[in-house]
Amino acid sequence: MITFDSVTKRYPDGTVAVDHLSLEAPTGEITVFVGPSGCGKTTSLRMINRMIDASEGRILLDGEPVQNIDPPTLRRGIGYVIQQAGLFPHRKIVDNVATVPYLLGWDRKKARARAMELLERVGLDPAFAGRYPFQLSGGQQQRVGVARALAADPPVLLMDEPFSAVDPIVRTSLQDELLRLQSELNKTIVFVTHDIDEAIKLGDRVAVLRVGGKLAQLADPKTLLSEPADDFVREFLGHDRGIRRLQFVSTEGLRLRTDLTVTEDAGDSGDGAAEPWLLVVTGDGRPVGWRSGARPAGLEPYGTYVHGRDSMRAALDAALLSPSGCAVAVDGDGKVVGVATREALDAALAEAADG
Ligand SMILES: Nc1ncnc2c1ncn2[C@@H]1O[C@H](COP(=O)(O)OP(=O)(O)OP(=O)(O)O)[C@@H](O)[C@H]1O
Ligand SMILES: [Mg+2]
């Protein structure tokens, strides 16, 4: 656990970059610092590994003040990833990743083997190992940066806008990759971004900072979206707050109907004939399309969500993709487990709005 205990940073010119910051970044979780440019995110992050020293207050690493740990020792236990990866241009990818193991005096073979293992872990083709950074795309370089930070298996990872310089699609895949890695590695991660959507996607907890280095709110993403502490946070969270909050509402409790499906070869079953919409499924239970009582000839499009795994936002999206207004609930294999009608979605939304 990383603890900020009333930490202030005053630069020599008098700028107060961080002002009495107190918070905890729990072990094994992703804590995100988010806020507008100049609000002290980078300064806060760099005080953890003592690239910058605090003016007042203390930062503790598992209870031990970092001021008591000499910087090289401290940094061995802390991986650091920055924007545009910051790779050494004259070193091959494999040697970039092995930087810290080399510094720690591992033998070359072991260090390179570790580097190869990490390249694979972050989703890079081992064939890249012999290339130089300029021969990789921005997104690939960023993955190398993450691999390099993980090389000595540090318990703590500091990431300063690591995905800001890549396009939105690559950025999404890097975010997904980080979440997948984290589910295996359980590092204590402090992640800095100015992008609130990235903060909400990645953070177990999100610290919103305002200019002047003051903590505006510290909360899990769901609470942040539903209960912003003040106007600054509300404005920073931006549009669609209500809809975005639905991504944290489970579909587990959504009531499903199982009497609205017909198998495609079964012909018109008498049972559901009175229903305005019936979902046609294949023999092994996969959706084919909606049949409307008004237009029995053709099939209308459908939308699916994975029941219990996907959020209410996904269920609502699925419903909006179909003229039936119903969402098709499927299991992990894509087989239909039921249908969420408008009434069911309405009830679930009303409950979500309630709290
Ligand atoms: N060495 C320095 N001397 C004086 N002021 C500084 C120094 N470094 C940073 N600052 C100031 O401290 C404040 C916080 O800077 P910091 O880099 O921590 O912000 P940030 O939140 O990371 O911003 P960005 O999103 O633009 O990266 C800013 O006002 C900045 O101008
Ligand atoms: Mg910064």
TrEMBL record:
This is ABC-type quaternary amine transporter. The lineage of its organism: Bacteria, Bacillati, Actinomycetota, Actinomycetes, Streptosporangiales. PANTHER family: OSMOPROTECTANT IMPORT ATP-BINDING PROTEIN OSMV (PTHR43117:SF4). Pfam families: ABC_tran. It comes from Nonomuraea fuscirosea. Gene3D superfamilies: P-loop containing nucleotide triphosphate hydrolases (3.40.50.300). Belongs to the ABC transporter superfamily. Its EC number is 7.6.2.9. The keyword ATP-binding applies. The keyword ATP-binding applies.
